[in-house]
């Protein structure tokens, strides 16, 4: 196996697959990346057993300056190989595999030799049905991930809650996550109706990594599903993730259909106030802040209290307020994370009672995106 390539193009491709490679894996060969050289392109693969990423460097693209002298496969230590390539002196580099998988990397006057491993020992990528892809606008899907992964559980005691539950019915994609204290739900109407219905749970950590890779991606992304794997394809990259096994709890009954008190705020203004109140609440044992809502006075008072440090109280004037008087306490961290994903828009918060979950929705569209937070009993 032998090839030469533009070093910057190669560094970019290495950076993509390295996202899936972990030094903490219990399978030694997964600390390596696989290089598969064919007559017309190079495929790079990285995996950590939970996610696998494969990207292709095409010989048809003149920017890659790819010249393939002989084909073959090898796996190389990902960390060492990547650091070597980044620090090579010249614009071009060449890679040649000799006897016993000894690999020589040359650029300018610099030459490295590192030990590789037989690629036959590298795990095979999953077989995923690519016949009926689900087409998703990349920017919207990245937004959906950002709005839902905040509510996935970090507790491994209920593994199914560490993922986001996706259901697809015709052209309606519903994404839901909950850690049993809060819930995030986003509904998206797809531009094209999918073939069949789907019901899967994708690990939150996989989705976070995918969202980082979609940053700046403007084209569509295709999602392919199999029994226990999902494959996302975009550009020249393929992103595989395992699916979580089990039945996701029915969350449809958790979202209230009516409310007694409604308050409308600019999300950024409310976020700033909650952040100020939480400065002291973080010092208390239970980390709670309180809303006191008085529609007759058109005012909401936000209070944070720490017996050891002190107390903060701030009066807020909402954009709109209606309904009954209410005092309700909740975890400010949940509220801050919820408000951040709305961005600079107006939100409506709908309360049922002091001990029932309340919802936060965009003021202009209260069905496509819902955040739900469970209050804290303080008496």
Automatic annotation (TrEMBL):
UniProt entry tagged with the keyword Nucleotidyltransferase: yes
Subcellular location: Cytoplasm
SMART domains: POL3Bc
Gene3D superfamilies in UniProt: 3.70.10.10, DNA Polymerase III, subunit A, domain 2
Domain DNA polymerase III beta sliding clamp C-terminal: from-to ranges: 253-376
Keywords for the protein's UniProt record, in alphabetical order: Cytoplasm, DNA replication, DNA-binding, DNA-directed DNA polymerase, Nucleotidyltransferase, Transferase
Domain spans labelled DNA polymerase III beta sliding clamp N-terminal: 1-126
Signal peptide (from-to): none
Ranges of residues in domain DNA polymerase III beta sliding clamp central: 136-250
Keyword Chloroplast recorded: no
Entry GO MF terms: DNA-directed DNA polymerase activity
Subunit structure comment from the entry: Forms a ring-shaped head-to-tail homodimer around DNA.
Membership in a protein family: Belongs to the beta sliding clamp family.
Main function: Confers DNA tethering and processivity to DNA polymerases and other proteins. Acts as a clamp, forming a ring around DNA (a reaction catalyzed by the clamp-loading complex) which diffuses in an ATP-independent manner freely and bidirectionally along dsDNA. Initially characterized for its ability to contact the catalytic subunit of DNA polymerase III (Pol III), a complex, multichain enzyme responsible for most of the replicative synthesis in bacteria; Pol III exhibits 3'-5' exonuclease proofreading activity.
Listed name of the protein: Beta sliding clamp
Organism: Fructilactobacillus myrtifloralis
């Amino acid at each position: 196996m032998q090839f030469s390539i533009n070093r910057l193009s190669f560094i970019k491709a290495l950076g993509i697959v390295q996202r899936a490679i972990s030094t903490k894996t219990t399978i030694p060969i997964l600390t390596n990346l696989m290089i598969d050289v064919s007559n017309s392109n190079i495929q790079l693969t990285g995996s950590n057993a939970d996610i696998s990423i494969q990207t292709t460097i095409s010989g048809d693209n003149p920017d890659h300056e790819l010249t393939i002298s002989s084909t073959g496969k090898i796996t190389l230590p990902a960390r060492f190989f990547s650091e070597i390539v980044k620090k090579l002196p010249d614009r071009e580099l060449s890679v040649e595999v000799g006897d016993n998988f000894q690999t020589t990397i040359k650029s300018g006057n610099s030459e490295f030799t590192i030990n590789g491993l037989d690629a036959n020992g590298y795990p095979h990528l999953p077989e995923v049905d690519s016949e009926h892809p689900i087409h998703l606008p990349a920017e919207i899907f990245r937004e959906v991930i950002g709005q839902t992964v905040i509510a996935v559980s970090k507790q491994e005691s209920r593994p199914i809650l560490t993922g986001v539950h996706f259901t697809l019915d015709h052209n309606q994609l519903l994404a839901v996550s909950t850690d049993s204290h809060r819930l995030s739900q986003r509904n998206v109407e797809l531009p094209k109706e999918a073939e069949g219905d789907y019901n899967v749970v994708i690990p939150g950590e996989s989705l976070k990594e995918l969202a980082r890779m979609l940053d700046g991606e403007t084209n569509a992304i295709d999602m392919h599903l199999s029994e226990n794997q999902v494959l996302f394809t975009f550009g020249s990259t393929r992103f595989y993730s395992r699916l979580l096994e089990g039945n996701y709890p029915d969350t449809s009954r958790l979202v209230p259909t009516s409310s007694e008190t409604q308050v409308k705020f600019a999300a950024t203004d409310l976020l700033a106030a909650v952040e100020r109140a939480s400065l002291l609440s973080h010092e208390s044992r239970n980390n709670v802040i309180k809303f006191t809502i008085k529609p007759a006075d058109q005012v909401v008072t936000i209070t944070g209290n720490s017996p050891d440090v002190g107390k903060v109280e701030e009066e807020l004037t909402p954009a709109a307020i209606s309904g009954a008087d209410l005092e309700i306490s909740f975890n400010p961290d949940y509220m801050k994370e919820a408000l951040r994903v709305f961005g600079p828009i107006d939100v409506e918060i709908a309360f049922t009672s002091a001990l029932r979950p309340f919802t936060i929705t965009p003021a202009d569209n209260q069905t496509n995106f819902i955040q739900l937070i469970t209050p804290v009993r303080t008496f």
